[in-house]
Amino acid sequence: MEVYNVTDDAETFTSNAFLAVGDRTVLVDVGSMPGVVDVVRERVDDVDAVVLTHQHGDHVGELDAVLDAFEPELLCYDDHPRRTRELHDGDIVEIGDETFEAVYSPGHADDHLAFVSERTIFTGDVVTYSDGAFDDGSFGRTDAPGQSREREIKSIREILTRLPASVERMYAGHGESFHGDVTAVIERALERAERREPKYPDE
Question: What are the structural domains of the chain?
Answer without folding.
Answer: 1-76 (3.60.15.10), 98-203 (3.60.15.10)
